[in-house]
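Ticket reopened. Same input as before:
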Amino acid sequence: MTATLGVEDLARLLGLKPEVVEGWLAEGWVRPAREGAAWRFDEMDVARARLIAEMLRDLAVPPDSVSMMLSLLDQAHGMRRQLRQLLEALAEQPPEVCRSVLRRARLIERE
Amino acid sequence: MRDPYEVLGIARDAKPDDIKRVYRKLAKELHPDLNPGKSGLEARFKEVTAAYELLSDPAKRARFDKGEIDASGAEVPPRGFYRSYAGAPGGERYAEGPGFESFDGLDDVLADLFGGMRGGPRQAGSRRGRDTAYEMTVDFVEAVKGARKRITLPDGRTLDVDIPPGTRDGQTLRLAGQGGSGRGGGAPAGDAYITIHVPDHPVFERRGSDIHMELWITLAEAVLGGRVEVPTIDGPVTLTVPRGSSTGRTLRLKGKGVPGRKGAQRGDQYVTLKVAVPDSPDEELATFLEGWRQRHRQAIVRTRPREKSQETGR
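Engineering reply: fixed in the latest deploy. New output:
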């Protein structure tokens, strides 16, 4: 249903010049897959690029702060991912182990 | 939809700069992607964005103030927020850094995994289904004329999407009740939002409700005039080229443009002529022009303002 987009397509979708998107690629803000000489933006890359466009255009985030904000977001998502994995692993343990760990971690107040 | 002034919390006579300032502040607080751990922001963000969309456009704002359009005029898709990808399988592509300190916002994970363990049962109330966002590509003529397209959703369902006539590149359609199903008894399903991509057409170019194209004619047609076939989105029609038509002359095919929405008038098609001289002019033509040149002097303005003339053709 959704094909990947090239730089031109993405630029048009976001109402930007292709050079702007190329600048983001050079900064490493988006890292789409590559097919020969062409960049291939999948849905996640498009969503990320849209977020960058909104930060710059709608939220007036200074361009030199974008790297920092993206890095913080990436860290947050990295942490959430690991936490989710940890909780999923915990869920496979016997119920009393789960309860004990969660209580110790003060994630549940009482039984 | 609520009153956009109320949504942004501004006065009816707020200045454009104030509206922008208020929107930026709210959007920074509410943008779901800038709040990976907070749930429930999307609806509010969407509302604020729609309100801003309406009030930041002086024309739309004026029409809204006069009561000509209502607040639902500005439909804003929820689209794929970045965080929905970053949290999904495959999303680790951009993830950074080890360690975790904050459990904030992972209540949903805890609740899903450990059910009623968090001191008392979690409210088992019904919840409206999620809004979902999709993208699809529709070819130029289909988008202009309208079409019905079937798409297959990631969950295997198929959906018939009516592309209304005059759909533009980047436009979003909302299919009420076609998003995720609701949870709990009687909870309504969410909506599906579909962003339409329209690739450029090799021949036609859309400008507003008009369609522009270039048409090559022969030297003889340019000098003598004639009837030529022109493609339109409804199929070929015959166009009368007036005698003595130069490159750049633009003829209008009335009512052959983009169909108007909701009773609005249909646009026109503009055909700009381009004269093609034979690749290798034959002796007869060359000899004729040699003689003609000696006996005539063609008055010509070699540089002209880049202005488009528009005439009615056909």
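The first helix of chain A runs from residue 7 to 14. Strands of chain A lie at 33-35, 38-40. Please confirm and we'll close it.
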